[in-house]
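Dear colleagues,

As part of the handover before I leave the project, I'm documenting each prediction I ran so the next person doesn't have to rerun anything. This entry is a single chain, and its sequence is reproduced below.
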Amino acid sequence: MVELVSRLGRPVADYALAQEEALRRFGMAAWRVSSRLSITLLLALMTLMLTEWLARGTLSGFSDYLLSPTRPGGVALIVLALLFVATDTLFGRDHLSAVILLPMALLPAFLSMQKQQYLSDPLYPSDMLFGHQIGELVPVIFATRPLASICLIAGTLALLLLLGYLFVLGRRHLPTLSTTSKLVRLAVTLPLIAGFLSLMGTNGSSYVRDRLNIIPMMWDQTENYRHNGFLLAFAINLPMANISVPQDYGAEAIAGITPDAMPAGLLAGRDADVIIVMSESLWDPTRLSKTTLSPDPMPTIRANQSGHMFSPEFGGMTANVEFEALTGFSNAFLPYGSIPYQQYIRRPLPSLATFFSSKGYVTRAFHPFQSWFWNRGNVYDALGFDGFESEENLPEMDKRGMFASDEALTKEIIRQADATRDPFFFFAVTLQGHGPYEKNRYARNTIDIRSDVLTPSSRDSVATFAQGVREADDSLKALMDWAKTRHRETIIVLFGDHLPPLGTAYTETGYMPDVVATRKASVGVMKREHETPLVVWSSKRGLQKDIGSVSPSQLPYHVVRLAGYRHPFYTGVLGGVAERYAIIDRHQLVDRDDRAQPDWSTSGAAIDPLIRDYRYLQHDQMFGDAFGTARFFPELTERAGAAGS
């Protein structure tokens, strides 16, 4: 019998078997690749779904986000899968990346959910700059919710142990990647990831980004996170610290700004002492709908109210309000979600402190918490304060719950004022009114709360908050009574930094549709949800009336003018802005007649030259070449000369 032989001299049967074996091996390899890719896609899908669920608090819109051709959910899924593959390559094991990337994605999503409950905004990359501060607040949270805190700590430790165990287990048992496989994976994933990173810049348009429906909605971060999803929006915000230069900014633009017609030093002022108190979460609780408070928790404030402060924040971000009130600059000109105290103040800046210091005043800041909080220790130095009285160097103060009392802080301000011979400018940030408003913070609540709609827990929160307002009011009265006995004129300014985080008390009473304030609405709604009391009073000239509802950035104008001084920026540029506009918000300009210009900064319409010049000067001092320092902020030049000598 003749055996069939192939051209290569091999038996045909053996050749067929070899081909069959090759096909089998190829099929097995293809199956391994496809199955591994499928598992990677499933891990990426699970990560995306869980992060969206945590960040949104619901999965109701997830399918639309993932499947809609007008949303970038599919892009987010692919990018996550690429990151999983690249991380697997780094560790040399298939799917080991899940132990690393999954918790890295879920933790910020969880923190974003928590932040939105209290501050109405999602988590921004810049929030990571003050993670240490969040850690320092843990004792406060533990004191108010000990059982929940213990469970959280125990759960965190258990999760870390589990992740460590899974990582070790994965290193032992998951498939090892060959050198060839690693090279192929890196050759595919790294260029694609690099291409994606190139799309993250938000200045200017991008054809590819637009085709992928990745739309950086920096003007409305709530919509930005809704449209792009948490992970993409968070990544888009990474370049947030990159400040765009205003169009046509330069030496010529600054030279074209007309300063105050009267030179800064022409009027000597009255050497009046100035005390500004930014009262933590101070707000009028009698505004709550369907709720009666008795007696009035703020009789002194109400009798001496000059108007309202229109806060750009809600429930927190005190430092942003403080930044405006001290510098006269506006958050409206800065990236949404940024924190100037953390990100931008890295050099001497003009402020009320530098101005009054140039007039021979003693300038001092007070805050009964640690100096690192909100980076105040460094910031106050940059703003020109002579000293900062913080928890580290203040005498021990009586507490209300976990926080130093307004009464104790007021007594210390008076003590230091009496010991100061020269005119002084004091700026104080209180702490007593800080949330959460736990039951039994006070030994006795003196304000009766009557409401048919508040739940017991919400009623307790309102009662605690109202008692704090009552004590803040008593402290203002003590400060005013003391000022009336002094020979030298004393100007006292008091305002709240933002509405308190009262949670469901707002929705239960119908005061607001949500537990956090609206960021973009009609003037009436915005005022309702962002106004706090404002008192501007002089021991010699009495109450300054009819200031209206103004942004914190307008405060330096009123203070410098009341003190009897003229200044190229504070009474010149800011004075011109104040005559025309009451509120400078990133979403709308509101004039003195409550007429609004919504989306003024993003609509493409021509910007009022007053606002344009205002922005030029702010950019010039914060980020630019300081072309206008000598003309508009001569006190900075004097300060630099004094430091140099």
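The longest strand covers residues 531-538. The CA atoms of residues 21 and 27 lie 10 Å apart.

All the best with the project,
I.
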